[in-house]
Design goal:
268 residues, alpha/beta, Undecaprenyl pyrophosphate synthetase, 6-stranded parallel sheet, 6 strands, 44% helix, 13% strand
Length: 268
């Protein structure tokens, strides 16, 4: 029978595999974590149709598990998360779908009002309130006002939002103020002025475009497009980790980089 010393120095295949699986979850350096991550939540209807469900059920699945996703990213160093949930162009959808979404948003924002208090989260709802149902617009105002002083992280919902409209409205507000603006002071006229620049934008459902989303804040963002539909991403820590791993691999130079050698001389 093998002695203890031999077994200690010669682990079995099963013991080696067990050690492999017991490795701690991969950690990422704090400076390699996006402070602001923004999601374009695409593919709800396609997800439902692929499963033989009514398209509207995709929206219900897509809005589930938001809280767990937010908690997961905040625990890893993200401080701001923005979700693009309804664009200014989405009014072109059927009345049945728009009405369903407005009711769904009201229910979820009301729930988030309680979540803001319990978890010290600040909520922002960016976009125009003009076309929203009155009770939903009021809920947006109440959610922002009740959580304005919270410091545990910022969650923003882009609702009836369009990036071009935001910039045009800010230009008109700056003109009305009657003073020249700098890049910094111009942002004070924007709906997203108090939000951090976006570090990483993730769009689901294999759509490779930004669709009028946060045009100003995306200036130096890393872009990531994934094949999964939004209801798949919203409940998958595996995909969440993939987004952080991909961001950590990116080399962000902001227009700089290694100095080039223009002398024409070969390196020794």
């Amino acid at each position: 029978m093998p002695n203890r010393e031999f077994l200690k120095n010669n682990p079995t295949k099963e013991e080696s595999m067990l050690k492999l699986f017991k490795k701690k979850e991969k950690t990422i350096a704090p400076n390699a974590v996006p402070k602001h991550i923004a999601f374009i939540c695409d593919g709800n209807r396609r997800w439902a149709e692929a499963r033989g469900l009514p398209p509207l059920m995709g929206h219900k699945a897509g809005i589930a598990n938001f809280e767990n996703l937010v908690d997961w990213y905040f625990k890893r160093g993200v401080t701001t998360i923005t979700f693009f949930i309804f664009s200014t162009e989405n009014w072109n959808r059927s009345k049945e779908e728009v009405d369903f979404l407005m009711d769904l948003f009201y229910t979820e924002l009301k729930k988030n009002k309680k979540n803001a208090l319990e978890k010290n989260l600040r909520y922002r709802v960016i976009g125009s309130r003009d076309r929203l149902p009155k009770k939903l617009a009021k809920m947006c105002d109440e959610l922002e006002e009740s959580s304005a002083e919270n410091t545990g992280g910022t969650v923003a919902f882009a609702l009836n939002y369009g990036g071009i409209d935001e910039i045009v409205d800010a230009v008109n507000a700056a003109i009305a103020a009657g003073k020249p603006v700098t890049r910094e002071t111009f942002e004070t006229f924007m709906d997203t002025g108090d939000l951090l620049p976006v570090d990483l934008m993730v769009r689901t459902s294999n759509e490779i475009r930004i669709s009028n989303f946060l045009l100003w804040k995306l200036a130096y963002a890393e872009l990531m497009f994934v094949p999964e539909h939004w209801p798949e991403l919203v409940k998958s820590p595996k995909i969440w980790q993939r987004t952080l791993d991909e961001f950590a691999r990116r080399n962000r130079r902001f227009g700089g980089g290694k100095k080039a050698d223009y002398s024409g001389k070969k390196k020794k």
